[in-house]
Design a protein that fits this description.
- By secondary structure, the protein is α+β, with helices and mostly antiparallel strands.
- The chain is built from 24 helices and 21 strands.
- A hairpin with a 5-residue loop joins strand 10 and strand 11 (519-523).
- Helix 2 runs antiparallel to helix 3.
- Residues 722-727 have low confidence and may be disordered.
Amino acid sequence: MVHRLESLVIRHALRLPAPAGPAGEGAVAARQFDAALMSVGFKLSADALRQLSGLSEATVVDTAVGTLATVREMAGDHVRHNVYFKDFPANVPDTFEFWMRCVREALEDGKARSGVLAQLRAGVIDLLTLPSYGNYRHTYDEMLAAHDELTAAVGDRLTVLHLGDALEDEVSALYLALAGSTTPLGDEHLADLKVLAEHCADGPQPETIPVRENRAVINEARLKTGSGLLLDTVTDVLRLTCALSGGDVSLQEPTRFHKLSRPVRRALLAGLDEVVALAPAKLADVLAHTEAFKRLGERLHPHEYPQWPHAADVFAVARGEKKAHTFDGRVEALLTADDVTGATELLKSAPGRLFRALDRLLRTASTREERDAVVAAVEQVAPEVSGRVVLSVREYLHNRAEETGRKRVFINRAGRAHVADDTRTAVPEADRERLITALDAEIGRRLPVPERLLVDPDILDVALPLSGRATSAGLGVLPRGSVSPVEGELLRFFVYWKQTRRVTDYDLSALLLDADYETVSWLSYTNLREVEGEHSGDITNAPDGASEFINLRLGAVRATYIVPQVNIYSGEGFEEAEESFFGFMLREGEQRGRPFEARTVRMKSELRGPGRVALPLAFRRAEDGSWHAKWLHLYLKGHPAYNRVEGNQVSVATLLRAIVEREQLTVGYLTELMANGGRDVATWDPASIPDVPVTYIGLERPEGLHPESVVITPENLRDLIPEWLLR
């Protein structure tokens, strides 16, 4: 368990918990540990190296074993990445020539010959029936022998692990940060929160738990450890039951409830009873999930517990035996009657809902007076609305300009996306500008006043993480909509997957589009070699794991956009496979090395979304020839089987265009507001490190900062929202 907790801290904070052990002569082992880390693109900070050097050799070795395992997994180096073509990217054959070679080899195979001849007579060859197609023809060691060692380059990634506090202190701080987050966490981080919540159930708790999914996971842990439940609404109990049944705590997907023990039933019913007794109006929340509450009642048997009559009322409302009037129903009645002013006045008592209904109110308003009433209400209640909602509405207004032909992008909580024409009535420009001015003023008012703020320019185009579900777990991953520079001669994508039970075939592809989003070319198993680069070959079965690569020479790319994608051709989905992840590497032309080299990995993210086509990010060439990544974290529904890059060119291009044309609020937006508000905002200069505490925002934590400095990096970028805007 200790190593698991240490791993969580390293993955989330890039901090090495201060090892506990006897003093000793660990300097040699510490330097060897540091060298091993550098081989996979990591390094100990000076403080961490110094601390380890003063401990016993056994302590250093124990720390090294666990840490190396963690960072190798972070970079995707914990598995063996073999390739179909042993010399990749050299000697990749022409696609048709390769297929014909597979046919010839099949004809020379006594077992396959008759079947292939029958297919030839019919005029159609199924590649998957050819013995030499889709399966590794050499061992991993034979592949390694075909490649020279990687030559070190200045541009290789070097991620610093900084020295942290004692393990328990680091774990507690991480738990409080995740539990108290005001942005929903991704599934991977929710799973981590569950582990932390069980460990920290009897320790310090966050002052508030704004996100309901987080509360459900924490309540599950508290129930197991015998701690009191943290319940505020009847829906909290429903979410908790979903957590106990291994279901969807966001309530977006139905959960099959497990049989519950009597002590658990009593705890849930007692919690429901207390919530309703304190606030009977909360019975109205049942109406949003009536079917789920009916099924919950079948598991809880409320009729067996007459001591909790208010809990029984919950299920009476779900069955329609008891009336409950909802706030949303009253609002809907007013809007149906075209009473925009009345609906606005009512919504002022629920500021968050007013903000979420803003677009509809403005579109429904038919007079200048009604629109003025809506805008005035927003200005009045803005101080009472959470920072995340204020920022979300500000971003919406930025993209709601009066333009024709715009597309709307719909992205659900799981990352599945689709695009539709924007047929909404335009928001009058005067109202839009007035609202933007009001929200900018409100956000600026809430921003802190640090004595000195230092900002690394490379982080200015990183999107604000308004939802943890707009990203995915991994190394070097940025929120959806972020833009980051890409520097290097060779760009190499990789995908790895390992099937759980069924034969599973994932296909890595790259679609190349011009400035008008028209197809220039692509690289995939159907087009192994192009002017721009090479595909490593198709692997169609992964019982022991499989990898595919695409190598691109950026200087030779004829397109404006490069869109890597992972298509599920057959078998298990991303959430069914035992493991699946995507990433990219950057290299200089002369580096050579193996197909996969951990220290050249710039990004590695888990593939765990819905749909059958994954779109992690896209690359765009600017007018000056430089390349930038645009982070997507999207999934297309695709087909149940046989997804190919050729079949989704139009849908991918349409989605990319809509995403590129939509602008997100970025870190640069916040720092500009701070500068306009008179704060001392300066550009980070690594050659001039202050010896006093500062607030630093950048892609990586620099060494040498004062220990009392506040540091914001992508690992804790969500802290910008709760700590700076919810005041």
